[in-house]
Amino acid sequence: MNFQKTLFLLVAFSFVIVTNSDAQYSWVSAFPNLPTFSRPIDMKLPPDSTNRIFIVQQRGIIWYFMNTPTVSVRDTFLNISDRVEQSGSETGLLGLAFHPDFANNGYFYVNYTTNSGGRLSRISRFNLEAGNPNKGDESSELILITVSQPYSNHNGGCVEFGPDGYLYIAFGDGGSGGDPGNRAQDVTTFLGKLLRIDVDTTHGALNYGIPPTNPFADTTASNVKKEIYTWGMRNTWKFSFDKELDSLWAADVGQTAREEIDVIRTPGNYGWRCYEGFLPYNTSGCGPSSNYIFPVFDYPRSEGISITGGYVYRGTKYPELQGKYIYGDYGSGKTWALTHENGNTSNALLEETNFSISSFGQDKAGELYLLQYSSSGRIYKLEGPSNVNPVNNETPSEYKLNQNFPNPFNPVTKINFSLPESSKISLKVFDLSGKLVQTLVDNQTLNAGNYFSSFNGDNLPSGIYICRFDTEKFSDSKRMVLLK
Q1: Residue 442: band (very low, low, confident or very high) from pLDDT cuts 50, 70, 90
Q2: In 149-306, which ranges are E strands?
Q3: Rounded to two decimals, what is the model's pTM?
Q4: What is the domain extent for residue 345?
Q5: CA distance linking residue 196 with residue 211, whole number of Å
Q6: Would you give the distance in Å from CA 29 to the centre of its chain?
Q7: Residue 169 confidence (pLDDT)
Q8: Among 67, 63, 59, 58, which residue's Cα sits nearest to residue 35?
Q9: Number of domains in the chain
């Protein structure tokens, strides 16, 4: 077994590359006029037509506000601090998920720990107050799952609906250190698992159903948990779905050596406590390495001490980040972009922040945010290098959008525009169906002058594209022909 594992490690590490990003990315304050948040740990947007952002505070409050850069007012959506554990760094209100049909049924789900009747984790459903889309009904709690926690740490906490409509739930291994009860490998407990349940049906006495494709859905063993989707998880603090590729990205916090990223496409055993990342940890009683699914990437303690999972980037502002997994580390404050495709993996540093990172968020346009974990935490948004360049020092007499040059082009063209005064501008490219293809400039304030921006159609098919230029006082558009 040792020779087999050594060979596996040599193969695994042979395709991992770590670099620094050449582009200059930073996390800037997204909503500077909002009050700070006390220990924010989750950010979610509901699947409805509103433009609201919801922020979960660890001690039991969920706030909401409108997703506009100048917003200064927030309101309470839910306050369950009366039942949420009020002490401990890994306890509290830990996760929020909106039902896919939230716009119609008003259901949302939370993961929290409580001291009511012992140290427990709960997965509960709440609904909106009648006639009030901005207020959760605190008396409407329906408890779905209750799990006894042997220790105060490693509670997991993330809850997300997958593309399949099922609710996925992360529980840590029960805590202490080294998983002393080997709970992550024990399929008769929820601890150290990723669960998957159907909240739209019921199963026997349960307030939910068991998806028929769960790995133990058909077991006849009465003590095996049919809700289990993956096992061998140490403490998956954050996970998310890349719905474009139908994959689940899970960041599993390590013990003393490695922090790992798993891409979960099928259920199975992800190794803990037999392995920590790619490395053996405690192989007593473990099977051959072929029994386990290993991460796509792990990193050592020299880079960070507690991974915080993020999202695969699907925005339009930074096409060079398309398909990359953006994540960070709570302890070191570093953020990275991980590329994993065709069996190859590379990891590039985006920025090393100076604060603790509790979570990431994603808006409806696919742009990414970061939560600062602090008693006065703020929300930050990913910003990249500017795609605007001055042409000369002249001050034009009028607003103008020039025809791109060259046109037709393959694959890069320049778009020139003029501003007679300081203006906030947007420059976006659409296809003929009206779908946004790329955001070149997003509500950026520029001084009077002549500028150009470059558009790269390398990943697009030949066709006609529309360049749209907007300021507060002027709008125009041009047709551009990509010919390959």
Answers
A1: confident
A2: 159-161, 167-171, 193-197, 228-231, 236-242, 247-252, 258-264, 268-269, 275-276, 279-280, 297-300
A3: 0.85
A4: 2-383
A5: 7
A6: 18
A7: 98
A8: 63
A9: 2
